[in-house]
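Could you show me just one protein sequence together with its fold in token form as a worked example?
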Amino acid sequence: MTEAVTQPRRHAGQVAIGKVKVGGDAPIVVQSMTNTDTADVAATVKQVADLWRAGSEMVRVTVNNPESAAAVPRIVDKLAMMGIEVPIIGDFHYNGHQLLAAEPACATALAKYRINPGNVGFGKKRDTQFAAIIEKAIEHHKPVRIGVNWGSLDQSLAAQLMDENAQRAEPWDAGRVLREALVRSAIDSAERAIEIGLPRDRIILSAKVSGVQELIAVYRDMARRCEFPLHLGLTEAGMGSKGIVASTAALAVLLQEGIGDTIRISLTPEPGAPRTQEVIVAQELLQTIGLRAFTPLVTACPGCGRTTSEFFQVLAQTVQEHVRAKMPMWKISNPGAENLTLAVMGCVVNGPGESRHANIGISLPGTGEAPAAPVFVDGEKSVTLRGDNIAQEFVALIDAYVASHYVSQRD
């Protein structure tokens, strides 16, 4: 696995969400969110199961009406029958206080509540409705994520800070005032929850924006000013490569600085693409910077005029898909296999060298090279593959390596 070059994690309290620990010295947690109608139990169960199998360690669902609130206990029960105990988080906006009161089974079944202080209530009702949700969390012994978003910021707080800014001898620019409003909304709401009676060790904070530099600035400030665990995510990151690049650009900086205890990559799914892509991107982000290991990753060259065909590209894809498919089983039978390093290279220029750096690497022949593919195991040439079955033979070598090098202590 890539060695981490991060600073030590910032000091934060630890919150238990079901069996998952967030903050403290716990590993950074990957989470995701469904986009099904939560009232559609079958569709939501299927998507939660897919996200869990992909590696999501917590899954958030929308709870926006009585039908979705009533469905939550059935969703949790069906998942448990499938052997899936992933914590389910309820996402509440506007009417959470009513839904939790009307559906106590929902309040019990959820592992955590997520509330947005910007739309938990308005005017005189805001404090009352915020308190009602916190009281339900206290009653049911649930942790809460207080999640601020610049698209739904508490307007009364924003106006107050604008007025304060106008009185400054040297007023801040509008961006700084907005960032201060985000941080203040999150931290002040957390302190109000504690005053109401919610234990400090049941609170997680987030302050999401869709701009990379703004997100970095907000979380650096929030990390300095509180010791609550922080959930990271670039909201409305976008679709495809734009969403992946923007999320990575923002979160990688913060994670390198030791900021962040749980993450989500908020991708807009491309038409027909699986929802699970956001989980894979989050895992690969954490793994490539050396913070966690989830599945063996494949080093592969981009191809050039020296590479003779697309075979090395197909092999790289085959290998990556194979190890990802095997990982749920390996996690149980061969713990540690997630740290395996692999290389699939397309010619002699960097092929042997990169292959020697990996646990298992193959250097395929390029233009003008002999039709042979040497395989290197732990830096030493092991075998040379030829013919039409290179892919199957190389995958078999990987499986054999895992079986011999990552043995369960129970065996």
Q: What stands out?
A: The first strand starts at residue 14 and ends at 17. The CA atoms of residues 154 and 410 lie 54 Å apart.
